[in-house]
Design a protein that fits this description.
The protein is of the alpha/beta class. 45% of the residues lie in helices and 17% in strands. Among the domains are: 129 residues, HUPs (Rossmann fold), CATH 3.40.50.620; 163 residues, Valyl/Leucyl/Isoleucyl-tRNA synthetase, editing domain (Isoleucyl-tRNA Synthetase, domain 2); 177 residues, Isoleucyl-tRNA Synthetase, Domain 1; 130 residues, no CATH class. It binds one RNA strand through strand 8, strand 12, strand 13, helix 10 and strand 25.
Length: 880
RNA sequence: GCCCGGUUAGUGUUAGUGGUAAACCGUCGCCUUUACACGGCGAAGUCGAAGGUUCGAUUCCUUCACCGGGUACCA
């Protein structure tokens, strides 16, 4: 068989993926096996694959594939999210490009456009995930606005309303003047910004006196309805009962006394604008000040502002400043840094605004959801996120769930003409309910459904339940089998948006946690640590990465630098490393395929030892890998696999058993080697699904599973633990000799002789002697009592290796290197001696440590003896 | 401001430990050896700073510096 020298993943990957789908390996139906279920964090339906998705889904796929090979009935449910704000904005923009304004369309017409857009562009990302190798059960693909899922949303809305947890009320909300909707607290991102701090002089009514007030938002003076001063502030106490005139519009406003005013900050006097600041709002409530809302929805000023009507708030700010300056009421301007809220979606500056919205009470939902995380019923990986979670949960405020948008789940509330309302599943039920409640005479035309939709997260929080239809049909066999899911893999960014709320929903609607483990991975950043974004243009195109390095290579590259919870500084070189690893595996395979196997050939002792050693090593590594997985240390698990394959299998094992050029290999060794390769492919399959399947398909036995996807994951079994120690000495010898060859310029082809002098009275362990001979091209390996003449000496631990060297090269350099080694050893010896002569050390340190110290001392002494002896000899030679 | 987390080789990524330090990548040097140059062999660190506890601290404690995250207030 002719096998390419370089592994090329391109066709292999797409063919295997198609094959897996055709065989239905990713499909899951409830059966008698233990389930392993997981839901995908649904990407935005209009989204395209970016590096964050690649990382997120690679991790999930590793977990799922491993669970599948461990015999679980695995179900990874894919799907997408309708993303109200983002999708609506895109559809609005697209319509604008076609010359259609949203306002000119009816709700139904707009939604038709939105659905068309979704059908056309939605779910591209899911196709892209297939390129990555994601082993989702595609037959279960869900969308948050599917019928079942939408029904689930209104059902829980009604239930929570009836329980009194959902209420409607006027509150100060975060208004996004770009998206024209209210947002929840979580959708506001606070950033420190350099701002101007304006000092403005207010006239006292009926007097020449003025009072100075500082503000960062001078345009809001037009909504001022009071001035707050501290009750004990002597500077201003005399003003009580008087009124100040709001500059430019001369509205008289009263002084109020409240300890909220900070005497140290600004001028100590605070303007109160109850309609546009949460603290002012509370002050206004407390002291009976009216609120004057001077802004329109889009952030322009309305007629209540009296001035600059129709102008944007930032333009109005400049004009207010200009006009105040002109009339001398602006006394000075300072630079300050303050924190400003921005919309997470549109990046508009959030306008705090009084508004009638729907809210969900959080206290009762938060308590049990906090408890299950703090007591590790749900485990966070890494656990450091527990603290952050607790902090949020303990300070959670009610959730504003209504959005002034059309794309999403419409709020199931119907209003009577007088504003009273009912909450019901449908218009029909609403009518019946309204008649019962408010009078039989009502007709359908008099009821109007709420215009708003629900926050997207109000559907996402049900995701682990609703994908199995567990809200509408709580006892259906699927939800009972798959819920709770096992693991959730996501980014800490959405810990509150999503994870916390899923936990609340799970406990509230199922009485059970939604998942047992939450794996939180970092953000993919570029090499300079910047978040990858379209506008920076610093994100590589995931699909072209896959094209270049293969999905296996990219997966490995992403995972290499991705310890749990830490951000990942992505470099393309990591994918290159992944690709190189593919190639290494490929060539190991190629080597085994090039061997001629002769059935009746006797197995060499070296091969038998090599097999024993690798068997032990493999099991030890499997133990380590299992431990890493059990602690969700996926990058570490991969690193262990990488070293097992590259170092242990390729660099050591294959070199040990490799037959000389064009010579055959015996049957036992051949079979064992293929068996190892088979196991290694299975261990590696969750990380590199394609190349492992390709190689497996060539080497599998008749009785093996037909595909590696469903082959059993090797498990660690008991092994000869002494092998490791014995081999590690042999490895030091081999490395020492290789090193010496390089230093002395002895080509690998030239055979050498080695005479070993042991400096202890133990019989030598010759287990690896044959292998050492083979790996170092040693023609004769013997044990001696006396150091032979004319040899170069290597010291491994306290054993001397004497190697005759044809031409003595560079004695001086050798002396120098021995001298520096001697100095190091002497320093080392000195420190151990110091310890051992310290009575306190001997009496306080555990005896194990003291023994170790004694062993170190005797080893060092032995080494020093050998070095000194050799130095003497070299110096003699130099003199003569 | 408060609360977490971090600082270990090269303005890289991370393990780890009360007994003079590991891995990956990168860099550099040598090697085109018959699986693989997408390869092989090798080199380089006062474990952020200062104190303290200890026979002994990179590890435990305190303070500080810097970085990251969360969160509050900021008129």
């Amino acid at each position: 068989m002719q096998i390419e020298k370089k592994y090329s993943p391109k066709n292999i990957e797409s063919e295997w993926y198609a094959h897996w789908i055709e065989k239905g390996y990713f499909r899951s139906e409830p059966d008698e096996r233990t389930p392993y279920s997981m839901v995908i964090p649904p990407p935005n339906v209009t989204g395209v694959l970016h590096m964050g998705h690649m990382l997120n889904n690679t991790i999930q796929d590793v977990l799922v594939r491993r669970a599948r090979m461990q015999g679980h009935n695995t179900c990874w449910v894919p799907g997408t999210d309708h993303a109200s704000i983002a999708t609506e904005a895109r559809v609005v923009n697209k319509l604008k490009e076609e010359g259609i304004e949203k306002q000119t369309l009816s709700r139904e017409e707009f939604l038709q456009h939105a659905w068309d857009w979704k059908e056309k562009h939605g779910g591209i990302i899911l196709e892209q995930l297939k390129k990555l190798g994601a082993s989702c059960d595609w037959s279960r693909t869900r969308f948050t606005m599917d019928k079942e899922l939408s029904d689930s949303v209104s059902r829980v809305f009604i239930e929570l309303y009836e329980k009194g947890l959902i209420y409607r009320g006027v509150r100060m909300v975060n208004w996004d003047p770009g998206a024209l909707t209210a947002l929840s607290d979580e959708e506001v991102v606070h950033r420190e910004v350099r701002s101007e701090f304006y000092y403005i002089r207010y006239q006292i009514e009926g007097s020449d006196e003025t009072i100075e007030i500082a503000t960062t938002r001078p345009e809001t003076i037009l909504g001022d309805t009071g001035i707050c001063i501290h009750p004990e502030d002597d500077r201003y106490r005399h003003l009580i009962g008087k009124k100040a005139l709001v500059p430019l519009i001369n509205r008289p406003v009263p002084f109020i006394l409240d300890e909220y005013a900070d005497r140290e900050f600004g001028t100590g006097a605070l303007k109160v604008t109850p309609a546009h600041d949460i603290n002012d709002y509370q002050l206004g409530l407390k002291h009976g000040l009216p609120g004057i809302d001077i802004f329109n929805d889009n952030g322009t000023l309305n007629e209540k502002a009296e001035l600059y009507i129709g102008e944007d708030r930032f333009a109005a700010r400049e004009k207010v400043v200009r006009d105040l300056k002109e009339n001398g009421q602006l006394t000075r301007v300072e630079e300050i840094t303050n924190s400003i809220g921005f919309s997470e979606r549109t990046d508009e500056v959030i306008e705090p605004r009084l508004s009638l919205q729907w809210f969900l009470k959080m206290d009762e939902l938060a308590k049990p959801a906090l408890e299950v995380v703090m007591n590790d019923t749900i485990r966070f990986h890494p656990p450091k996120f527990k603290n952050i979670y607790r902090h949020w949960m303990e300070n959670v405020r009610d959730w504003c769930i209504s959005r002034q948008l059309w794309w999403g789940h419409r709020i199931p509330a119907w209003y009577l003409p007088d504003g009273r309302f009912v909450v019901a599943k449908s218009a029909e039920e609403a009518l019946i309910m309204a008649r019962e409640k408010y009078g039989a005479g009502l007709n359908a035309g008099e009821l109007r459904q709420d215009e708003d939709v629900l926050d997207t997260w109000f559907s996402s929080w049900l995701w682990p339940i609703s994908v199995f239809d567990g809200i509408n049909h709580p006892l259906n066999p699927e939800i009972r089998y798959y819920y709770p899911t096992n693991d959730l893999v996501t980014a800490p960014e959405i810990l509150f948006f999503w994870v916390a709320r899923m936990i609340m929903a799970g406990l509230e609607f199922r009485g059970e946690i939604p998942f047992r483990n939450v794996y939180l991975h970092g953000i993919v950043r570029d090499k300079q640590g910047r978040k990858m974004s379209k506008s920076l243009g610093n994100s590589p195109d995931p699909l072209s990465l896959i094209e270049t390095y293969g999905a296996d290579g990219v997966r490995v590259g992403m995972l290499f630098s991705s310890p749990a919870g830490n951000d990942l500084l992505f470099e393309e070189a990591l994918c290159e490393q992944g690709r190189n690893f593919s190639n290494k595996i490929w060539n190991a395979f190629r080597l085994t395929q090039s061997w001629d196997m002769v059935p009746d050939m006797a197995q060499s002792g070296e091969s038998a030892t090599a097999i024993q050693w690798f068997e032990a090593n493999l099991n030890r590594s499997l133990e380590i890998i299992e431990d890493h997985f059990s602690r969700y240390r996926i990058a570490d698990a991969l690193m262990s696999v990488y070293k097992l394959v590259w170092d242990d299998f390729c660099s050591w094992y294959l070199e040990m058993v490799k037959p000389p050029y064009q010579r055959p290999v015996d049957q036992i060794t051949h079979r064992a080697t293929i068996g190892f390769l088979n196991k290694l492919m299975r261990v590696i399959h969750p990380f590199m699904p394609f190349i492992s399947e390709e190689i497996y398909s060539h080497i599998r036995d008749e009785q093996d599973a037909e595909s590696i996807v469903v082959a059993p994951m090797p498990r660690a079994s008991s092994y000869d633990a002494s092998m490791e120690g014995r081999f590690s000495f042999a490895r030091e010898v081999v490395m020492g000799i290789r090193n010496m060859r390089q230093e002395k310029n002895i080509p690998p082809k030239e055979p050498i002789e080695v005479f070993v002098r042991k400096n202890d009275n133990q019989p030598p362990d010759i287990t690896f002697d044959g292998i050492i001979k083979k790996l170092c091209n040693i023609s004769h390996l013997g044990y001696v009592q006396e150091k032979p003449e004319g040899t170069h000496t290597l010291i491994v631990r306290s054993t001397e290796l004497h190697i005759p060297i044809a031409g003595q090269l560079n004695t001086g350099e050798e002396i120098r290197s021995l001298e520096s080694e001697l100095a190091y050893q002497q320093g080392f010896l000195k420190s151990t001696r110091k310890k051992l002569s310290n009575g306190k050390f001997l009496s306080n340190a555990p005896s194990k440590v003291v023994d170790m110290e004694r062993k170190k001392q005797s080893d060092a002494e032995a080494r020093i003896r050998v070095i000194e002896q050799q130095l003497r000899q070299l110096r003699r030679g130099q003199l003569s």
